[in-house]
Amino acid sequence: MTDQPRILVVDDEPQLTRVLRAGLKSRGFDVRAAADGLAGFEAFNDWHPDLVITDLAMPNVDGLELCRRLRAVSQVPIIVLSAKGEEKTKVEALDLGADDFVTKPFGIDELLARVRASLRRANAPPTNEATPTMLDSGDFHVDLESREITVRGKRIHLTPKEFDLLVYFIKHSGKVLTHRTLLAALWGGNYVEQNEYLRVFVGNLRKKIEPDAATPQYILTEPWIGYRFNSGQN
Amino acid sequence: MRRSLLDHRWAGYVVAALSVGALTLLLKIIGTHVNAATVSLALLLNVLFIATRWGSLPALAASILAMLCFNFFFLPPFGTFTIAATDNWIALLAFLVTAITAGQLSASAKRRTEEAETGKREIERLYAELRDAFERASHAEALRQSEKLKSALLDAVTHDLRTPLTSIKASITTLLDEIRGRINGEPPVALDAESRVEMMEVIDEESDRLSRFINGLIELARIEAGELQLRRRWGAVDEIISTALLRAEPITKQHRVEFDVEKELPGVCVDERAVSEVVYTLVDNAAKYSAKGSVIRIIARRAGDESILMAIEDEGPGIPANLREQVFDKFFRATRDGDIRKQQPSGTGMGLAIAKGIVEAHEGSIWIEAGRNGKGTRVMFTLPIGDEDVVDEKQYSAATLET
Questions:
Q1: pLDDT at res. B344
Q2: Domain boundaries, chain B
Q3: Do B1-227 and B233-398 have matching folds?
Q4: For an interface test with B, which of A2, A16, A38, A62 has the most B Cβ atoms less than 10 Å from its Cβ?
Q5: How buried is A205 (Cβ within 10 angstroms: 0-12 exposed, 13-18 middle, 19+ buried)?
Q6: DSSP single-letter state for residue B187
Q7: Does the model's pTM come out above 0.95?
Q8: Spelled out in words, what is the top-level CATH class assigned to the domain B233-398?
Q9: Whole-number Å distance between alpha carbons of A152 and A136
Q10: A85: which chain B residues are within 8 Å (Cβ-Cβ)?
Q11: Residue A175, C-beta contacts closer than 8 angstroms, at least 6 positions apart
Q12: What pLDDT is recorded for position A108?
């Protein structure tokens, strides 16, 4: 048993699993590979990896089904490998609980950055233990009790909904959040198709927190998918 | 259509009055030569004319007017409405009844004809409308189907291009990271020599895969455009087979290859390179989809006086009967698109489509059966032996199919 983080790579392309295995091993990860969702799920149960990287289109059990099965038993971070043009499937995977995605073809650095971010999030102490009253992340400081927020040391005034949206973003910093996830979390299940609500609130929030709302640095748009929050912490 | 004055509502009555008047005048002028019967017939004809042209009411008006004129001018005593003889009363009455009846009958006949005409036109119009609507719908459906097909083909092509690219990109960035790290004096990335070689092997193999895929695309495009130019010449079947097998040696190393080639097979006039490509594709498939150590059998024999039959047989899981035609469609992969997906690996979905194109360009045919004892796959194709005289030198010199 080593203390290296364990990564399970699930892809039906043997060449890609060969490369990822060698590439990730060289960065100090312990890697195993599986050729389809079924083998992937079995390997997960045997080996308990710290993170799963999975392709979406695979024979037998595909990436979506693997996400569904994994989420039924575990909160392990999942990164999906997807292709341009697979936006619909990608969103589905994220809605099913995948944490992030990387679009093929990708450089190893991009994948590694996503892996590190996902592992960091997974290992971070849970923020909601014993109802904390303060939330600190990058440029943001939030007092949840008095509902006050400062950005880069400057106090800002938000409407209650904007406040909730920003707190949700901060709590899920670095993670891709689909429109559906955000709408369900902030407005409830009946509003998951109302993307325009979200656009309006994100627009207002950007005006209040971004140095330049036209080129946002905190609330980043993931085209066709949703948003990713970057608190400015590096 | 423009309405003429004659189509006006009152035109019938005016024409009725004028025509009866004119006819009466004419008959009066030549009066000495006509008797009452002739006059009544002429007036009746006029009523019929009015009825067929303007319908029943103008005809009725014409009938009454004609009756009055008949009475006034042609029944004695002339110039009065009184009638002297009883038989003339009968004649007048008969005239009136005949005129009215004939007028009404011909008017109703005319109406029915018109109604029938209108009905016919309506049916024709509806038919044309329906036909147009149907044509529009089927055109739209054809367009939709073709768009769907195009997008499916594009998906297949982009997948096959992107997959090797992804492996190449991931390998090269891993290697680059290591080298850059070393140059910048950063803590070295622990990439051992074995991994480094593996990355480069992957790059090498995946580049070949891309190149094969692109060659396949070009060949398919040529076949589809009907531009596959065959360099036909006389050759021996066993030589074609040996060329293919030599090329397939690395793939068939772990299989037992058996031959069942008829002795004294006649020579064939074919494009040897292209036919050898067909044999190679089939042997490659046989090796790919059957277990190591199993038998791949190559069969060649005469089929009648004018053709050669060749078959490549394996002991793999076989292709279900419902997919045996579809596997010849371009980009169709039984292992991915069919219901036998669990078997790996999967090819590019072009090999069999190209093989079919080549065989058909030789005017042969290709099909799939179950192998021996109903197990495995047997792909068979026929090739016409060819005619002694038809070596087309022009085509031969124009051939460009070198890949």
A1: 52
A2: 1-227, 233-398
A3: no
A4: A16
A5: buried
A6: P
A7: no
A8: alpha beta
A9: 11
A10: 155, 158
A11: A99, A100, A121, A228, A229
A12: 92
Angle at the Cα of B392 (from B387 to B395), degrees rounded to 5? Answer: 145
Residues from chain A contacting residue B168 (CB–CB below 8 Å): 105
Q: What CATH code would you report for B1-227?
A: 1.10.287.130
Selection from B245, B228, B314, B231 nearest residue B279 by Cα: B245
Report the percent of chain B where pLDDT is more than 90.
30
Contact A16 B162 (CB under 8 A): no
Q: Write the pLDDT tens digit of every residue in B299-353.
A: 999 998 889 999 999 999 888 888 899 889 887 776 655 544 444 556 778 889 9
Burial of B264 (0-12, 13-18, 19+ CB in 10 A): exposed
With beta carbons less than 8 A apart as the criterion, state whether B401 and B274 touch. yes
Q: B265 to chain A, minimum CA–CA distance in Å?
A: 43
Is residue A100 within 8 Å of residue A118, measured between CB atoms?
Answer: yes
Total residues belonging to chain A: 234
Name the helix (H) or strand (E) containing B59. helix B56-69
Strand pairing report for B233-235 and A219-222: unpaired
Residues of chain B contacting A, Cβ within 8 Å = 155, 158-159, 162-171, 173-174, 177-178, 189-192, 195, 198-199, 202, 205-206, 335-336, 341-342, 344-345
3-state secondary structure at position B286: helix
pLDDT at A133: 82
Structure tokens given for B323: 């997919």
Q: Is the dihedral of CA A172, A176, A181, A186 positive or negative?
A: positive
Q: For the residues B346-369, what does the mean pLDDT come to?
A: 88
Angle at alpha carbon of residue A114, lines to A108 and A119, rounded to 5°:
125
For residue B177, the chain A residues in CB contact (below 8 A) are 108-109
Per-residue tokens: B14: 């005016």
Q: What is the pLDDT of residues A42-65, one digit of tens each?
A: 999 999 999 999 998 887 788 999
Q: For chain B, what percentages of helix, strand and coil (3-state, to nearest 5) are there?
A: 65, 10, 25
CB contact under 8 A, A106 and B195: no
pLDDT average per 10 residues of sequence, chain A (234 residues) = 84 91 90 93 94 89 92 93 82 90 91 91 67 83 89 89 91 88 83 81 92 92 90 73
DSSP secondary structure letters along B229-270: ----EEE-HHHHHHHHHHHHHHHHTTSEEEEEE-TTPPPEEE
Q: DSSP letter at B44?
A: H
A7: enclosing H helix or E strand: strand A6-10
Q: State the residue for tokens 């997906």.
A: B341
Q: Which residues contact B243 (CB under 8 A, 6 or more apart)?
A: B272, B276
ipTM rounded to 2 decimals: 0.74
Domains of chain A: 6-123 (3.40.50.2300), 134-229 (1.10.10.10)
Q: Does A200 touch chain B (CB under 8 A)?
A: no
Q: How far apart are CA B334 and CA B323, in angstroms?
A: 7
Measured CA to CA, the distance from residue B180 to residue B185 in angstroms comes to: 8
Task: Say if CB A56 and CB A82 are below 8 A apart.
Answer: yes
Nearest chain B Cα distance for residue A58, angstroms: 9
Residue in chain A lying closest to B171 (CA): A19
